Structure formats: C-alpha cells, structure tokens
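yo, AMP-binding protein is done. seq:
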Amino acid sequence: MNTELCLHQLFARQAAHQPDAPAVRDDKEELSYRQLEERSSRLAALLTREIGSGPARIGLHLRRGNAVVVAILAVLKAGCAYVPLDPTYPAERVQYMADDAAVDLVLTDADGAAAAPAGHRVLTIDSALWTEETAALVEVPRWQRSHPPTSSTPPAPAARPRASRSHTAM
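structure:
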C-alpha cells in the first residue's frame, strides 16, 4: 500500500479496481464503489465551486448514513477539512461547535436544513443531485477524481445543479 496517497485517492483506486462491488449501505440504499466515487466527485465539484480554491472547514450536518460517507470523500477531494455536526445533538451544542470551529460552509440535507447552525453559509443537498439528468450539470474535473486540488483550480462550469444555499445572519 502506498502511504503517500490520501484517503480519497486510495478510495478512488479501490473504486477503479472493483467498481461494482458494494461499498456502503444504509437503511435507504446500497452504493457500489463506482456510485460512491461518482457522487463524491460530483459533490466535490459543487463544493469547489461554492467555496473556491484553498483550505476551508465544511460542517457536515447530516444524519448517519451513506450521505456522510459521500460528503467526507467530497470534502477531502475539494481539499478541505470536515467538521462533524451531529443533527441529533441539541441545537445550541451544534451552533457552538460550528462557531467554535469557524466553519466556512455547512453541508446538510432537506431534513436538516431548518436546524442548520445560524450565521453560516448552508448548502442543502437535494437527492436530484445524484440523478443522471443532473450529472451533466455538474462537470467533474478530471483532476478531482484522483488528485487533490492545486492552486490552479480549473474554472467552474456555468450550470448549477439542484442544490440550494442560504446565508443566515446571527
């Protein structure tokens, strides 16, 4: 095993080696390595477009399940760090954690959007982001599939996927 590679790069290798093997499963669905790689690359492209290049802290305000694995891989591919924000914690605790970590963006789903920490940019993932129709809207740069971003991040595509963002004041 090459210890020079990051987690998301090792995962991409495994996805290329066994694309149709089951990778993760929750109570809603099972994802193959290929599906997990495609979803995380799509979300990484969206995150890169939202926050630009450079390091950032992304709060993951997501219920336990496949979406968390997709989000972690996407954050790493985007060259960022993730901050877990468990939506089952009391709202005051989640708010404190997001503020204390100085998150640049909170990634959540439709169920968690209303309870996302105030005062932070919020990106709500819509399940339509994973459909084939939406795949064409989110161009996944080739470098993101197996390499971390560099300072020469390619320009973002003009089309927007089906995700919503909000800016809230404290």
